[in-house]
TrEMBL record, chain A:
A Pfam family assignment: Peripla_BP_6
Family: Belongs to the leucine-binding protein family.
Leader sequence segment: 1-21
Protein name according to UniProt: Amino acid/amide ABC transporter substrate-binding protein, HAAT family
Entries under Gene3D superfamilies matching the protein: 3.40.50.2300
Alphabetized SUPFAM superfamilies for the sequence: Periplasmic binding protein-like I
Residue ranges annotated for the Leucine-binding protein domain, each copy included: 29-350
BP-aspect Gene Ontology terms: amino acid transport
Annotated keywords: Amino-acid transport, Signal, Transport
Top-level taxonomic group: Bacteria
InterPro entries attached to this UniProt entry: BCAA_transport, Leu-bd, Leu_Ile_Val-bd, Peripla_BP_I
Organism: Paracoccus laeviglucosivorans
UniProtKB/TrEMBL annotation, chain B:
Protein name per the record: Amino acid/amide ABC transporter membrane protein 2, HAAT family
Keywords tagged on the record: Cell membrane, Membrane, Transmembrane, Transmembrane helix
InterPro entries per record: ABC_transp_permease (IPR001851), LivM-like (IPR043428)
Regions that span the bilayer: 30-50, 55-74, 80-105, 112-138, 158-179, 211-233, 245-272, 284-306
Species for this entry: Paracoccus laeviglucosivorans
Amino acid sequence: MKALRMAAVCLTALGLTMAHAAPALTDEILIGELHPLTGPASFYGIPESRGIQLAVEEINAAGGVRVGDQSQMLRLMTEDDHSTPTAGVAALKKLRAADVRFIIGPLGSGVAPALFPIIDRDSGVTQIVDGTIAEGVTNGRNIFRNQAAVSQYDLAVADLFRSKKYASVAMMTDRFHAGFMGTQPALSETLKSLNATVAAEEYYKLGDTDFSAAMTKLVSLQPEVLLIRGYPAEGALITRQARQLGYEGQVVWEMVSPPSTVLKNISATEMEGVYNCIPPTTEDYIALGQDKALAFDKAYQAKFGTTPGELSTLSYDAVYILKAAFEKAGSTENEAVNAALAAMRPEDVPQLISGYVAHQDGRLFDDVGQVNLRGAVSIWQGEGWVPVPDLAG
Amino acid sequence: MARIPHIALISAVAFAAAVAVATQMNDYLLYVVILWAIFASLAVSFDVLLGYTGYLSLAHGALFGLGAYTGAIMTTRAGAGFWLALPVAGLVTAGVAMVVALIAFRTRGLYFAVLTLGIGLIGHQMFLVASGLTGGVLGFAGIPGPGVPSWLPIDQNLWNTCLALALLLVTFLAAQVFVRSRLGAACIAVREDMTLAQALGIGISRARLSAFIFSGFFTGLAGALFAAINNFVAPESFTVLGTGFQLVALVVVGGMGTLWGPILGAALLTALPEALRMASGYSMLAYGVLLLVFILFAPKGFAGLIQRGAAVLRRPATRKLSPTKEGVR
């Protein structure tokens, strides 16, 4: 009985301790970040979290953020959203209870829509979404996104089909990926309008390992293209099983896919020639020899002893976007920061690594808070992805 | 067995105490309390079925989702208010639960569990496939919350917490009334020896059907409240492997057939993932270890441990009395 009582007291004490994070001091700005740090999506979430840590450290080491006539340091509060809606909402509530007013994240396409109604009606919080590609999770008032929307991924797929004039396609989509499922009908229509027959649309889910039934059906249809939309572990297995079943057509991926994850489930030889249609990621910028990306890579490796993840630069950029907004607003009041974000131009944030293209009016974010980060085509060569600058070539 | 008025009084005092404590909590802790209260309501109603009839249903994750989507559709598309949507969600879920029960009670034991597992899987797939109604994988957004009455000077989060605690109170009291009724006694007879119960002329079909419908009704209410408080629901909250098995865990860890044990089980298993939030890999490990430990060493769950502890505490007191008795003799 005593032991039980002790356990209950300890658990309660632990809960209360964790819930009451120290409030932000007047000379520091508290930034919360929400990413999946455990579970199947952590291979995206951890590198994103590290990208944020690196940017915060850099900014603080350089003297902090200049707000009006005083400098303020950034302080980070990290929460694990497990990439599930309920845990994500709990994590958000925890950040808000600790008086966090600026939030970066989440990654999960299932989490962002759950957070949206809460943040949308909370004028005391500003959010920059750096991970999810699901549509409809920004508002341009207090929720902005520096990641592409899935429709921007689809533009690259359309470019590829337009250029290569593929005649038929079979689609394999992660049924639980809100982003990809959301644009599936529109993409299907776009491909049809480009004279490609949609031979089949099949679905799978994160964690599946045996695709033989669906692949047997798809391979028998002999589509010119097998388009896979979802996550790389399954993408690799689907590609391998399709090849084993004798599929010789073009495999096209539409997913952020770190080579280290891809190569756990397929050999580099089997991946040779696969296309991927997404906006450039960390690795692409490094491969292109972009100075800021190279410096980021070096600092990241020095700090964490490993290479950055595909989305790390987006998270890193998000911190610098917030910094620029604080400085432009000359205030840390949410209303002023939101206005600064809405009016921001890419050139206002010289530290940005990702290749954001200004909207027609020159702003970084459009009216609904979305950046212009158009998808591009890369091809697997050797041990990783290589950008394809000229699709006609 | 304690009488209903006594239980009602103790429960009402516990409810008032919980609300009083809640007024001192921040929004995050309130949300954890809400999750606990909703899952405790689910677990109590599930205990009526599992603990009192012995039938293991794995369809309850889907029934929880049905309640959530019914509430969401009622308030967003049918223009109903929360207070109408809540009982309708309960009734719709109870109706579907009745159909499920009529099919599933044609089997027993493992076959019943497997059949309800299939129904749970179908239900979850329906939430995905019927995207016109449910929003599919994108989820159902924009569900209006239960508005705070204008005469009540509290904020939305505290109001949500009060509602969740009230649901737990109502579910618990209703379950107490149910298990003390003739139907409840018949359910226990079904659990202990169905053949003997049949031989004695106990209406086993009616008893177990009533338990399933009772459980379905309160599962539907919990789902509708969950949807309204979160303003958003998605199919992944209602999977068999997630919510379906979680309910079993809450009841097993809490103590089957006690009604109050599952409330403790829900407290432990809701607090644990939050307390271990930054190490949720360990949280799942702790979850698994807890289940293992309880099944191996405390099959009567938390409630059994407490009852055993109370018995141990009572024993020395009896011994102290015995010399006096002997002295009298």
